[in-house]
Every structure is written in C-alpha cells, then in structure tokens.
Amino acid sequence: MVRLDGTWLVAPERSAADRRRDRRRRCCDAGRPIYRYEDLPSAQLATRTMLRKQFRRRPAEGQDPVASYMVHRGFAPLYAVIDAKRLPPLPPVRKAAWDRARTCARCGATQATLYTKGLDGRRYCEGCHEPAAAAWWYGERATGRTTAAAWAAELLADMRRDPDKVALLYVGYPTSTMSQTVRAETWKGEVLFSARVCDSDTFYREGQDTHPAELADAFRRLGGRRLLSWRGEENWLSRLQEAMHEHVGDLDLTFAGGRAGPHWDEWQAERPPLIEPHPFQYQHQLRRQEDPSCRPPELLAHVRHVVTEMAIRACHWHLVTCPECELSLPFGTSAAADRWAKQHSETGHTISHRTEPGDIVPSAVNRR
C-alpha cells in the first residue's frame, strides 16, 4: 500500500478549457438558455436577422423567443424557425440577386447563408476561393504587363519626337537639416543639374550644399518637360518647390512622365514569399522590386534601362513543370522560376521549363 500525500489528486485534473466551460453562463437575465456560435442549432433557432437573411421569415405575431444568442454586446433573442412566418415573395430582380449571393460563382453550389466575396467581387464557396483568387491575380498581372508595355512604348515615342521633352528627376527625402538631394538628367544622360539643396542658413554647409537661388536657372529648364522618376514622391517634390518658389516662381512641376518603379513591379509580376494554404486569397499583392542603388546616377540609369526593356521586349510567363508532383507553376520572371526549380531539384524530380505570352492568363495545375 502506498500512502498518498494530502496534496495529491486521485482523479486526473481537468483541463483549463473544461473549467472555463463549466463557468459559462447558462441562462440570460430573462431566464432563457444561452447559445453561442459554436453550439447554435442554426436549422432550428435563429435571430430576427438570421430569419430574414437565411429563411426569408420573421417572428409570427405573438411568437416569443425560446433562447438567447450571445453577441458582442449582450444577448439577442432566438426564435423557433418552424414557428416563424414566411415573408412575401421577392420581386424577380431581387430574387435573382438573392439567389446569386447564395450560389458559388465557380462551382454553382448553393446554401442558405451568403457566400463571402472573393477578390474579384464575386461570391465563392470555401473550396473555390483559392483557385478563383489565383485566376484573378494572373488576370490582373496580364493586364498590368500590357499596360506597362504600352506606357513605356508611348514614353519612348514621345522622347523620339522631341528628345528635350522628357527629363529624369531624382528627388531625395528632405532631411532634418532642411536639405534635399536632387538630380535631373535628359533621356540621353546629359546632367542638367545635380546638387544638395538647402534653404536654411542655420544648416547650410559651405562646399556641400547649394542655395536655392543658385539653381534658379536650372530649375526653369525643367518647366514644360515630362518628368520621369523611379518611385518619386509628390510630397518630396512639393517640398523642394516650396524651397525654390521665391527664386523661380510657381513652376508646378509634377511627375507627368510617370513612375517607372510601379510599372516595373507589374512587368516582373513577382509575388512575396508564399503563405500556405491560401497564398493567393490572403497574399495577393505584388512584390516591390528593390531599388538597384541609393546613388542617384545609378538609379536614373536603371530607370532608362527598365523603360527600354518594357517597350521593346515581349513579356512572357515562365512556366516550371514537375510531372511527378503534377505541378505547373507560372512565374513572372525567369529568375523567380529558376529559384523555385533549384529548390525543387532536391527531390530528384525531372523539371521542365517553357514560356507563354504575357498577355495570356496562365492555366496552372497548382498556382504558387
């Protein structure tokens, strides 16, 4: 015989979840039993809203609630569905909208409650959300690539008609010392001006900074040009114009030529690292391409490079296929396709590569 210490428990200790469940309220202040989201018999009991949206019913005259439903700020009365009164039939147009909201736009499945909306605004069942989101993403990228190519081609054509009409502008972030780095070049690479502008006498550094008055003539040369930037911020340019306003007046400079960075993102069509099991439904944004350099000359040279590439090269989808895994994965760039293929090659499977035109929405077995 083993003598038990007084602190021991012969019966196993109950879990914290079971103890919390025992402390739950069983009845509301009116004495009706309480139901929660996880234990509500939705086919038998419903609130007024549930009756209207799911069953097209309303409580009958004199019908009393039989239970209470715990909501965020108290309790909602629950009514027996079988005793509720049916609402009048809907007009044809509203009936069609009612049925459409409860029918999956992809597989045609129906249910009493509303399906949730996908990325394209249509409603899908749980199993169809991910493939529908993938199809939407590739459709958006195909459109974005076509738009980026058209933008770059139009910009180059404008430049060929008048080489002095387009200028590349880099405007740095205004620092706490009231100074900004600014550089402007022509499309051919001729430097219009490159300086660090400082409009504060307190923080002005002799030999490093340039007073706004010294750049007045150079800034006037930008007037009437289509300014092109990488990812230039309008507020940074506005801050610079405020500093120059006293000396050059109101030039009203804007990045009318556009920003090459967002178009390059669409052209590359890369996604951030995957999140399983719903990579498209919950992570459908584009991966922002890294700046090639923080030095203005190299950055503006990169702008010329990407605009030229988008204008003269045909965009393609790079498909990597693994027959053993039944995968056919489209990628926006060959580099992204090669990265995945290199990781997957550790399995020893045979991997093949091919390309499709970029304006075609890829049809993939498993889009990633």
Structure description:
- The protein has 10 helices and 16 strands.
- Helix 4 packs across helix 7 and helix 4 packs across helix 9.
- The radius of gyration is 32 Å and the shape is elongated.
- The two termini are 64 Å apart.
- The mean pLDDT is 84.
In short:
The protein is of the alpha+beta class and 368 residues long. It has ten helices and 16 strands. The strands form five sheets. It has a five-stranded mixed sheet, with helices on both faces. A four-stranded mixed sheet has the order 1-4-5-2.
The total count of helices amounts to 10
- The whole-angstrom Rg is 32 Å
How many strands in all?
16
- Average residue pLDDT: 84
Distance between the termini: 64 Å
As laid out across the biggest beta sheet, the strand order is 11-10-9-12-13
Overall helicity: 25-40%
Category by helix and strand content: alpha+beta
Largest sheet: 5 strands, mixed
Shape type: elongated
pLDDT under 50 segments (min length 5)? none
Query: What letter string, H or E per element, gives the SSE order?
Result: HEEHEEEEHEEHEEEHEHEHHHEEHE
Q: Please give the oligomerization state of what you see.
A: single chain
